[in-house]
Design goal:
The chain is α/β, with parallel strands linked by helices. The chain folds into 4 domains: about 80 residues, Helix Hairpins (Orthogonal Bundle), CATH 1.10.287; about 80 residues, FAD/NAD(P)-binding domain, CATH 3.50.50; about 110 residues, FAD/NAD(P)-binding domain (3-Layer(bba) Sandwich); about 110 residues, 2-Layer Sandwich (Enolase-like, domain 1). It is built from 13 helices and 20 strands. A 5-stranded parallel beta sheet has the order 6-13-7-8-9. It has a 5-stranded antiparallel beta sheet with strand order 16-17-20-19-18, sandwiched between helices. The longest helix is centred in the N-terminal third of the chain and has 25 residues. The chain is globular, with a radius of gyration of 23 Å. It starts with 8 loop residues before the first helix and ends in an 8-residue tail after the last helix.
């Protein structure tokens, strides 16, 4: 059952897919304007056709959502469009936009309603001047100045899109660092890279309001620790402080389904809620709000309901920031290992020493591998650099099979490739990196 007219949820409709299309297009726009000449490619200065870029994005969204619709039909899955409400174990009410309500009866119910944009007091989202990620991927004109509230994944990705296309971008983050939750060293180097590209940052700060002043906004910014406020002008404010579980209006309380203190559906670790026959997966339960995490949980609950053994390894779920360069992480951070008193060794290798990165002129960033000091088991890998989102896949597979850093170091990697930096970082765990 789906509330939208098209399937695919936030990810395909207004999240991962459209934002990646804009990230790709804006990256090429910047390359054409700044990098082609150095490579001996002479072209006129590129001109932005924003409406065509949005059409390109929409085409990608349509292709993906229609693909899901095809797969549902191919696999003989009945689809109902409308708002769902759980009436109790085995009963779901569907309320379409027009027409009468329908009650479906079933053996099992899976709550997979995802998440919604987290709101911020003092900033009322209108998706025109004060926007969420949904509005930020559909702006009709290029903002001269964009203020991004939140230095997390969504804010940095969409901020980088508009910065490449010509906007002045200021990121305001409450904490003293960007990418909270990811490896601290990774975040610090990444911030330096983004600053070099032209993105500005105000850390340890908060946006407390935004008032319309003609065609622009007056944005009020205060120190997080308290102090004098300042006011700056902006054309658009993007609120990107995170997401919250979408559980309202589902009839959960009436059905006896319990929520935790953060509004997430309580489960027993195998997706079963506090009511027999009702299960939950994805952003509505504990864990990272990532599409691939939800997908794995969807497979696991389907296998469980079919009488098989569904399982998700939460220790090996990659997290990727699709800016340029990309940022990718899987497993434990150095801060987490120190907090838990785990002895570890770290191996690091910079892309400045990688042959392919040097040849391509894409040398920002590094690969860092953390391994248990006694067993050499890989505990975490953190990458900032070109194609980091693809490179993290190799180490995710290695970690799934409890690989040691030596296993990765002794695996032959093709030359010249960016993946050699992963091998070199693994060699560096024991101080044996060859090209550094």
């Amino acid at each position: 059952m789906e509330k939208r007219a098209t399937h695919g949820g936030t990810c395909l409709n207004v999240g991962c897919i459209p934002s990646k299309a804009l990230l790709h297009a804006s990256e090429l726009f910047e390359e054409a304007g700044h990098a082609f000449a150095k490579m001996g490619i002479k072209v006129p200065a590129p001109e932005l056709d924003l409406s065509q870029m949005m059409a390109f994005k929409d085409e990608g969204v349509a292709g993906n959502t229609k693909g899901v619709e095809f797969l549902l039909k191919k696999n003989k899955i009945d689809a109902f469009h409308g708002t769902g409400k759980i009436l109790g174990a085995g009963k779901v009410e569907v309320s379409p936009e027009s027409g009468e309500k329908t009650t479906l009866e079933t053996k099992a119910i899976v709550i997979a309603t995802g998440s919604d944009v987290a709101k911020l007091k003092g900033l009322e989202i209108d998706e025109a001047k004060i926007v969420s990620s949904t509005g930020a991927i559909a702006l009709k004109t290029l903002p001269k100045k964009l203020v991004v509230v939140g230095g997390g994944v969504i804010g940095l990705e969409l901020g980088s899109v508009w910065r490449r296309l010509g906007s002045e971008v200021l990121v305001v983050e409450f904490l003293d660092r960007i990418l909270p939750g990811m490896d601290v060293e990774l975040g610090k180097q990444f911030q330096r890279i983004l600053a070099k590209q032209g993105m500005e940052f105000k850390l340890g700060s908060k946006v407390t309001g935004a008032e319309k002043a003609g065609e622009r906004l007056k944005v009020k910014i205060e120190p997080a620790a308290g102090g004098a406020a300042e006011e700056i002008e902006a054309d658009v404010v993007l609120v990107a402080i995170g997401r919250t579980p979408f559980t309202e209006g589902l009839g959960l309380k009436e059905a006896g389904v319990e929520l935790d203190e953060r509004g997430r559906v309580k489960t027993d670790g195998h997706f079963k809620t506090t009511v027999d026959g009702i299960y939950a997966i994805g952003d509505v339960i504990v864990g990272p709000m990532l599409a691939h995490k939800a997908e794995d949980e969807g497979v696991a609950i389907a296998e469980t309901l079919a009488g098989k053994s569904g399982h998700v390894n939460y220790e090996v779920i990659p997290n990727v920031v699709y800016t340029y360069p990309e940022v990718a992480s899987v497993g434990r951070t150095e801060e987490e290992l120190k907090k838990d008193g785990v002895e570890y060794k770290a191996g690091k290798f910079p892309f400045t020493a990688n042959g392919r990165a040097k040849a391509n002129g894409t040398t920002d960033g590094f690969v860092k591998i953390l391994a248990d000091a006694k067993t050499d088991k890989v505990l975490g890998v953190h990458i900032v650099g070109p194609d980091a989102g693809t490179l993290i896949g190799e180490v995710a597979v290695a970690m799934e099979f409890s690989s040691s850093s030596e296993d990765i170091a002794r695996t032959c990697h093709a030359h010249p490739t960016l993946s050699e930096a992963v091998k070199e970082a693994a060699l560096a765990v024991e101080g044996r990196a060859i090209h550094m």
